[in-house]
């Protein structure tokens, strides 16, 4: 799943540490979300969505494959 968290965070002039404090997670969690190594829980996705004032769909982009493949 791709996301725009880094783009939106940088647009606000925030570093990962400040953003992490604002949404009450670790800086490592923010880094993992931004690099796509971790998909946030639905609850955290809503927190991020509310923070940026964007819909979840505008922040987290689910790319569907042509077939139902298991990874």
Number of strands: 2
- Poorly predicted tracts of residues: none
**What Rg do the Cα atoms give?**
13 Å
This entry's quaternary arrangement is single chain
Structural class: mainly alpha
Mean pLDDT across every amino acid position:
93
Strand fraction band? 5-15%
**Helix segment tally:** 5
Largest sheet: 2 strands, antiparallel
3D architecture notes:
It contains five helices and two strands; from the N terminus they run βαααααβ. It has 71 residues and is mainly alpha-helical. Helix 2 packs across helix 3. The longest helix is centred in the middle third of the chain and has 11 residues, at 42-52. The radius of gyration is 13 Å and the shape is globular. The model has no long low-confidence stretch (mean pLDDT 93). GO terms for molecular function: DNA binding.
Which helices and strands occur, and which strands form pairs?
Layout: E1 2-3, H1 5-11, H2 16-23, H3 27-34, H4 42-52, H5 56-59, E2 60-61
Antiparallel strand pairs: 1-2
Helix pairs in contact: 2-3
Domain HTH cro/C1-type: 5-59
InterPro entries: Cro/C1-type_HTH (IPR001387), Lambda_DNA-bd_dom_sf (IPR010982)
Organism: Sellimonas catena
């Amino acid at each position: 799943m791709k996301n725009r968290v880094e783009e939106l965070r940088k647009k606000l002039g925030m570093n990962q540490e400040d953003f992490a404090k604002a949404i009450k997670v670790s800086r490592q969690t923010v880094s993992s979300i931004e690099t796509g190594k971790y998909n946030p829980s639905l609850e955290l996705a809503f927190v991020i969505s509310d923070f940026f004032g964007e819909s979840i769909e505008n922040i987290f982009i689910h790319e569907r494959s042509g077939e139902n493949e298991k990874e």
